Amino acid sequence: MKRxxxxxxxxxxxxxxxxxxxxxxxxxxxxxxxLKLLLxxxxxxxxxxxEEVIRRGTRDNVYxxxxxxxxxxxxxxxxxxxxxxxxxxxxxxxxALSLLTNRPRTASLVSDKNGQSxxxxxxxxxxxxxxxxxxxxxxxxxxxxxxxxxxxxxxKLELYRMEHSQHPLADKVKDVTLFxxxxxxxEELASLNSQASELADLLENWNDAFRSPGQFQITDDGLxxxxxxxxx
Length: 232
Fold this sequence. Notes:
Elements: E1 2-5, H1 11-19, H2 22-30, H3 32-40, E2 42-47, E3 52-54, E4 62-68, E5 71-74, E6 86-88, E7 93-94, H4 96-101, E8 108-111, E9 118-124, H5 139-163, H6 186-211, H7 220-225
Antiparallel strand pairs: 1-2, 2-9, 3-8, 4-7, 4-9, 5-6, 5-8
Helix pairs in contact: 2-5, 5-6
């Protein structure tokens, strides 16, 4: 693994990279100072083919965006006896739901051994602090991130529901209550935090179901969807 500081990377190239990451693009439109703060806590990481990027069960505060290459996703670890769940390619983001809910990673990710090296844009979200701490990261920035993660996760669960409509978990996403109060408030943030926790529980249940032998006959579309649980 090679770490590359952003100061060592051309600034014009960084701007182009950030324009492809929805969260950073939105923050850049909201508050340039907040963007600078996040970039101070960001860097690039390059992994050689076959190198482990994340191991299931570990914890960190890092949000990842794939700039180049592919990652192979394994449900447990990179042992050859475990099946490959799927591949994440350029443009995928992952790690958000785990860091918001302070949970261990739910899968192992390895740089594709048959491809080129993988380049990731990484941001340490430890700077976010506690949920109600706005001394560094503003309420607006936190709301932006939580909304993106929660909405994306709900979309993932809808894909699972459509693919496996008869499974007992299929309609559980409807039990996660939406926020109906005033937008842009700490109350909305608290609701999004609660939703993220409930959605993470549901995603982990789906992950366990897919990991159990013989529970599903997965179609090509279903196999493609399996990567979604790990991009959160």
